Amino acid sequence: MSDQRNHRVVVTSRGGPDVLQLIEEPIPEPGPGDVRVKVDAAGVSGFDVLLRSISLPGNPKPPFTPGEDIAGVIDALGPGVDGHTVGEPVAGWTFGDQGGYAEYVCGPAWRFVGIPEGLTPIEAVAVVINYLTAHLYLHHTAEVQSGERVLVHGAAGGLGTALVQLGNLAGLDVYGTASTHNQGVVAYLGATPIDYRTEDFVARIRALTGDGVDAVFDTVSGVRQLWRSYRCIRRGGRLIPIGSVGISNGGRKLIPFGLLTAVTLKLVPDGRGVPLSPNMMTFPAAHHDWYRQTLAELLGLAAAGDIRPMIGGSIPLCEAASAHQLLADGRHAGKIVLTTQPSGGSVAA
Ligand SMILES: NC(=O)c1ccc[n+]([C@@H]2O[C@H](COP(=O)([O-])OP(=O)(O)OC[C@H]3O[C@@H](n4cnc5c(N)ncnc54)[C@H](OP(=O)(O)O)[C@@H]3O)[C@@H](O)[C@H]2O)c1
Question: Using a CB cutoff of 8 Å and minimum separation of 24, what contacts does 176-183 make?
Fold first, then answer.
């Protein structure tokens, strides 16, 4: 791809992976307080697939560029920016009309944090949204304590692998659901694997723990799923709805029905709770210090080898539709990443 023009992936309308199209345009100029990042790696997530497929209140309308995180090098500073330098390797969160699926991205300087030495852009980008989200939901929403037991659904996915690893670091006893082919991944990450396709996870949790777990992180959603997750929780425990991968089976009605179920369960006075969760789409913008400190800490943990972001595949930016298809096929483990290097990628799934 040319250095003189920007290539950017655009969701042209709601639909399948083929609505993702690569456009060419002038390289954007950073405005006041912004930096411009020459992108090496852009993260792909289940949320991008959701935004591409359906319309949700408050989310961008087509045409827009998806992508919640990038890693690259700062190549221009807008007026008034200090604390960053041209040539600095950075990673950060991108959200809004201009997401991360591009060769050049401009965004507010506070969003970008230096990448420590020893971490590749692909590893760095895999830390951003998944580990920030996992950290927020583990420590802010669920307020987990060392020694507690937790169940993570979708434990081999991008967010799930982050929840499992940060859960281990926090001294939790972690159980994780995944398909048969991902049981080894979940065990390797340090959780007790449960095959949700062949086993009744409620019965298995009861058999493994006796009285249940202290928290369930439910990335799947849906009435039946949330109710079954709730049944895994012991008195004093918490249900944390955190995603909606089940939408591929349940359709878009899964989101309102899931919300209704969570609210109903919250009202049941049986010593179990469904705490209110902050929204990752807005939380970083309202808590710059938390965002910058936590992201720096997480990148440091990755550089030190204390967490190991799993890469499910690295795919050239111009093949973003294949990346979405790979995510939809659900045979990967870990984070799918788009790269801007022409010689590009491999699929490790
Ligand atoms: N709330 C937030 O702020 C936030 C932030 C990030 C992500 N999310 C949400 O979290 C969800 C996961 O995102 P992601 O990027 O991690 O997606 P992902 O990488 O595609 O992972 C999802 C995983 O879920 C597993 N799965 C599918 N159906 C399942 C079921 N019924 N039970 C258990 N596991 C199941 C699949 O694993 P197998 O192949 O093993 O079946 C898949 O690997 C999405 O809904 C996303 O929107 C929310």
Answer: 176/151, 176/152, 177/151, 177/152, 177/153, 177/201, 178/154, 178/333, 179/330, 181/331, 182/155, 182/156, 182/333
